[in-house]
Amino acid sequence: MEGKIFDIKRFALNDGPGIRTTIFLKGCPLKCIWCHNPEGISFDIDEYEEERVLDGLRFTSKQSVGKMVSVDMLMKEIKKDQQFFIQSGGGVTFSGGEPLAQYDFLFQMVQLCKQNDLHITIDTSGLCSINQISKIAELTDLFLFDIKFVDDDLHLKYTGVSNKLILQNLEYILKSKTNVIIRIPVIPGINDSNKCIAELKLYLDNLKNDIKELHFLPFHNSGISKYNRFNKEYEMRNAKSQQSTDLLSLKEEFTLLGITTKIGGL
Q1: Helix, strand, or coil (residue 179)
Q2: Would you state the pLDDT for residue 51?
Q3: What is the pTM of this model?
Q4: Which residues pair with 50 in a beta bridge?
Q5: DSSP state of 52
Q6: What span, in angstroms and rounded, lies between the C-alpha atoms of 158 and 211?
Q7: Distance of alpha carbon 251 from its chain centroid, rounded?
Q8: What is the Cα–Cα distance from 153 to 246, expressed in whole angstroms?
Q9: How far is CA 254 from the centre of its chain?
Q10: Tens-digit pLDDT profile for residues 208-236
Q11: Band of pLDDT at residue 105, cut at 50, 70 and 90
Q12: What is the DSSP string of 203-266?
């Protein structure tokens, strides 16, 4: 079995507990206009021209984003960091793109990681079939589960897909007692309106007893350089990055619901 990845990040500290190796799987069915990993959206291996200056000479070189890897090949890379996992209580995080979009490959990787006693975190938008989420949940130690909107029309407008199946999957894994940290990317002018926040509060209030934690993620526009490099249009180019202090009132508001709430993640 082979899968397509576009990056491996070692010694990651914000993608689950402990020191982690994060595997970024290529391809995502969502097209969020604020995505800060535009190179992970396409399922294809992308090529682009990169301009460089060396010794005063300007030249371009062709670069590619994405590569095929086998399950065994990727497992060998993960095992290089196993001692750090043991010492820190860390493990492997599968991110993207959307890791569940390459379900068969992901499932084999998760099975192999579990056989090697590795802690498994899946960073996901939650878009897959109920059957797939139920099987993967049985082997997963922690989900980092994004919610962009509760309102389906807004979700469709800004991500290109409905959120009905996403919310069904969230409710399923919460009821199955899987550890879930819900993450809300706060996008200025998009999902931070009073209406959006009120809908989110009402929705999460009904699920709060099963939620491990809630994390609000400040928007940052550091992805601009990637959009420039890959010659992609970025609709959020003029939006200002947020500071953690900008979200303190949100943290307080949701903490009052009885949900452990943080800013900026792990």
Answers
A1: coil
A2: 75
A3: 0.93
A4: 61
A5: E
A6: 25
A7: 21
A8: 27
A9: 22
A10: 999 999 999 999 988 888 888 888 889 99
A11: very high
A12: HHHTTGGG-SEEEEEE---TTHHHHHHTT---TTTTPPPPPGGGGHHHHHHHHTTT--EEES--
Write the single-letter amino acid at 244. Answer: S
Q: Which helix (H) or strand (E) holds 96?
A: strand 91-96
Contact predicate 99/89, CB 8 Å: no
Q: What DSSP string runs through 181-192?
A: EEEEEE-TTTT-
Terminal alpha carbon distance of the chain: 32
Burial string for 11-33 (b: 16+ CB within 10 Å, else e) reads ebeebbbbbbbbbbbbbbbbebe
Whether the pLDDT of residue 50 is over 80: the answer is no
Q: How far apart are CA 135 and CA 145, in angstroms?
A: 16
Q: Within 13 Å and on the Cβ side, how many CA atoms surround 231?
A: 7
How would you class 140 by CB atoms within 10 Å of its CB: exposed for 0-12, middle for 13-18, buried for 19 or more? buried
Question: Distance (Å, rounded) from C-alpha 198 to C-alpha 256?
Answer: 14
Are the beta carbons of 43 and 25 closer than 8 angstroms?
no
- pLDDT band at residue 63, thresholds of 50, 70 and 90? confident
Provide the 3-class DSSP secondary structure of residue 7: strand
Q: What's the CA angle centered on 38, arms 157 and 6, to 5 degrees?
A: 135
Q: How far apart are CA 237 and CA 224, in angstroms?
A: 7
Phi, psi at 100, each rounded to 5° = -70, -15
